[in-house]
Amino acid sequence: MANTGKAFIVSRGELQSLFDAVIARGFMPVGPIVRDGAIVYDELRHVQDLPEGWTEDQDAGTYRLKRRDDKALFGFNNGPHSWKQYLFPPRSKLWQGEKTEDGGFTVEEAEDTEKPFAFIGVRACDLHAIQVQDKVFMSDRHPDPLYAGRRGKALVIVVNCGQAATTCFCTSMNTGPRAQGGFDLALTEVLDGDDHYFVAEPGSTAGFSLLAEVPHTEADKDNVAAALECTARAEQQMGRKIDVSGVKELLYRNYDNERWDALEKRCLACGNCTMACPTCFCSKVEDVTDLTGDHAERWREWDSCFTMDFSYIHGGSVRPTTRSRYRQWLVHKLATWQDQFATSGCVGCGRCITWCPVGIDLTEEVRLIREREKD
Amino acid sequence: MRPHPFRVLDIAEEIPGCMTMRVAPDGAGGDAAFAPGQFYMVYVFGHGEVPISVSGDPVKSGELTFTVMAVGSVTQALCAVKPGAVIGLRGPFGSAWPVEAAKGRDVIVMAGGLGLAPLRPSIYRLLHDRNDYGDIALLYGTRQPDRIVFPQELADWRDEALIDVDVTVDTAGRDWPGKVGVVTELLKGRDVDPGRTSALICGPEIMMRFSAYALLDRGVAAENIHVSMERNMKCAVKMCGRCQYGPFFVCADGPVFAFDRVQRLFRTRDV
Fold it and tell me: What is the largest CA-CA distance in chain A?
């Protein structure tokens, strides 16, 4: 799946036929909707379900929906949800087992009954986040059956960003705002006076054949330029930046930086950042039985390196202080992740900044660690 | 990711609160071939799963031995199983003691407490290929005389004189004829040829740290010193994230590490 260089126009009025085509192919379309004062992801069957005319104010520890003065369908940035909730569900059954009469037991892998997902409105940073999690869950040796199954069947429809939040820093992480490949179809929403259309770029044969079922025209030079202008605008609006040059070595050198002590005082160890992060993959398992004790199940749930339980071995937690747990999270995200998976664990989506209740900003922390590195 | 059923052949108390059990595959699917130092995820039906290193002889095929201390809910349930019961196993996982690479060299095995259990398969292996190695020493430290695991083997190994067995305890009554002191004391006055010595260390982290540094002081190179790490673990396949140790996943990059790879982390608190 790569950008083919072919661009087409789908008018605002024809967008529903794209949804219809996705549904007709047996996909469960999921994407942005307004709920509980935020733009979250859920099932999406109609264009009217989209957050038309909505945007938001984001900053460290702040998220507020507000009205736009136009009717943009994708005129917002990332909310608290990410696509990992579909590929790596917050809670999933791994297997169930039954005791047998000879005192033994049988175990059966849980079946995934979900329809294949069509992700509508994937931002470039989040597309990278999916690719980061691919490396975790689809290793050659031990692929996760649930993740690999869902990922293999998923249809990815990107919407390139036409604006950036103050918490965004995808340009620093080289992940956006324009998706370069790895999608089935990429849309850029263009609002130009009364003109409202999408520049559609297929990135796979599935994307091409999907588009074939949607009324469209060839994009001309001006359309393509208008689309590029959108992402250029987002780039200019980029609210934050982070200097990641040599960040792995920087953090490896700074396990004793004084900034960790400041974070000990600020961080609540609530784990919000790890839940909102589109790449965080840590989990726990829960083994349960029914009342007879003859039927057992194993469930996997999202977990967070900010809990004491996370690193508990007999005798206590390996990381007993908030300082050590925040350090684990940040060093993992930006440094050890590179050694583990040959990629950064951060895609610059800014969620951990927005959803931190005390507004801890990792871009600022890295800057301060760099500044206060002892000579 | 599914546990395979293994039947418990026998189970006996090793020391108070600690059991040694032998298990064999119950039907198809279970893999009982392992390398010394590797571990399995051991499941007790309905209770949960814990990582346990194999403590038995790698040469004996078709069965596995585990030595388990009852410290949490799963290990308590595991220690309470009866012969004939069925437990679940996934594995083997992880890296192994470098017994092949140590051929032609002297080997110092240093164990602290129950740390002798994950080392015992390597000792069996060293004894099996005894002529391939130079001097072999087992330096074992534990808390009290009644916390000494595998006393019969220790006595046998001492009698056979194929390896030099030296034991010390932290505290003991007057009836203890042996040594009292920490395990690093056993290195003192011992002939160590640093250029041809490989060391295998397993025990509490603090014990491994002092042992490794004592060996470094004697001139043994960090890459020839090996330690076995323990971390919280759920999946054993680099997916749950819990066993991270700096850049490493203990489940896959470890549990056995050459000391030069982890020396920096050993010097850092709360990694």
Answer: 75
Q: Which of B5, B237, B247 sits opposite A336 (nearest CB)?
A: B247
- Is A179 a member of any domain? yes
Q: Are A303 and B85 in contact (CB < 8 Å)?
A: no
d(CA A74, CA B260): 51
Is residue B253 domain-resident?
no
Q: Do A285 and B235 touch (CB under 8 A)?
A: yes
Instruction: Tell me, yes or no, whether B110 and B224 share the same domain.
Output: yes
- Name the residue among A15, A115, A50, A129 with its Cα closest to residue A83: A129
Domain count, chain A: 2
User: What pLDDT was estimated at residue A4?
Assistant: 59
> Does residue A42 sit within a domain?
yes
Task: Please report the sign of the dihedral spanned by the C-alpha atoms of residue A80, residue B234, residue A328, residue A135.
Answer: negative
Q: Which residues of chain B are within 8 Å of residue A316 when distances are taken between CB atoms?
A: none
Q: Write the ipTM.
A: 0.94
Number of residues that this document lists for chain B: 271
Q: Is residue B258 part of a domain?
A: no
Do B271 and A312 make contact, defined as CB atoms within 8 angstroms? no
Cβ distance of A311 and B232 shorter than 8 Å = yes
> Considering the domain boundaries, does residue B161 fall inside one?
yes
pLDDT band at A166 (very low <50, low <70, confident <90, very high): very high
Within a domain: B37? yes
Which structure tokens are listed for B151?
Answer: 């006393």
pLDDT in tens, chain B (271 residues): 899 999 999 999 999 999 999 999 998 777 889 999 999 999 999 999 999 999 999 998 899 999 999 999 999 999 999 999 999 999 999 999 999 999 999 999 999 999 999 999 999 999 999 999 999 999 999 999 999 999 999 999 999 999 999 999 999 999 999 999 999 999 998 999 999 999 999 999 999 999 999 999 999 999 999 999 999 999 999 999 999 999 999 999 999 999 999 999 999 999 9
User: Which of B84, B240, B246 is the closest to A103 by Cβ?
Assistant: B84
Residue B154: which domain range? 106-228
- Residues B156, B57: one domain? no
Cβ(A170)–Cβ(A238) under 8 Å?
Answer: yes
- Number of structural domains (chain B) is 2
- Regarding whether B132 and B69 lie in a shared domain, the answer is no
Task: Answer yes or no: do B68 and B127 share one domain.
Answer: no
Distances (CA, A) of B200 to B58, B110, B132, B203: 17, 6, 17, 10
Enumerate chain B positions whose Cβ falls within 8 A of a Cβ in A.
1-3, 5, 7, 26-27, 43, 45-49, 69, 71-72, 84-86, 88, 230-232, 234-235, 237-242, 244, 246-247, 249, 264, 268-271
Strand partners, A119: A30, A156
- Cross-chain residue pair A318–B271, CB shorter than 8 Å: yes
Whether A229 and A206 map to the same domain: the answer is: yes
